[in-house]
Amino acid sequence: MDKFIIIAGPCVVESEEMLHETAAHLKGICEQFADVELYFKASYRKANRTSYDSFIGVGDLRALQWLADIKIKYNLPILTDIHSPAEAEIAAEYVDVLQIPAFLARQTDLLIAAAKTNKKINIKKAQFMAANDMEKAAKKVAENGNSQIWLTERGTFFGYHDLVVDFRSLISMQKFSYPVIYDATHSVQQPSIGAQSGGNPEYIPALALAAVAAGINGIFFETHPNPSVAKSDAATQLPLGNASEFISNIINLHRFIRTNKHQQPLT
After folding, report:
1. Residue 61: is it exposed, middle or buried by C-beta count within 10 angstroms (0-12/13-18/19+)?
2. Would the pTM count as exceeding 0.85?
3. What is residue 191's DSSP assignment?
């Protein structure tokens, strides 16, 4: 049985204490579900920020070492973003999954460098890309000897400063035979609407359940002990205190669909 993938954690490494609080809480939740595989997520550096003076990070090697410590202490695989070919090799020494940010999903050199690390590669679909274009992105990784590929939907530009989720994309990407992930928090973002990106977090639970109903293999969500003071994506991170109910509802629906998908339709 393939386990349902949960990718969760804060948007960016802010402090060592916050990482430990979040990782311990998420692990405690996911240990209740034998059919869940938890990946702890945090960006060690934020290369794409709305404003010049936005928080970028605590220092690359310091943040990566903190993530490596989380991996060891909690026995959790770690996912982080990379932004250049050089970063792929560096980050691969510390983490288990390299994530290609949405804005960089067409960068061939980056995809090839990530592939050559032999780590799992999570490619986020750019807000300007069609679902079918993700097959080309995946091919750049696969043809360099790495078939450990995930494809993640995170919303599509809907005019300026807004995103919409086209659930047809989740179904289309399943045809490529790679696990398909739904990014529940970035999908409700309002990019660059002010000095920082805004969002509509009230839609997170409903859209996540809709994605599970579409047959996805996993959910990505950012979570923080106190989103209002988060140094990145404060408007869309799920409060850590809400993570238990959020994950439970997702897994219960996933189990129901998996159990009943082969039944005859109602007539």
Report:
1. exposed
2. yes
3. T
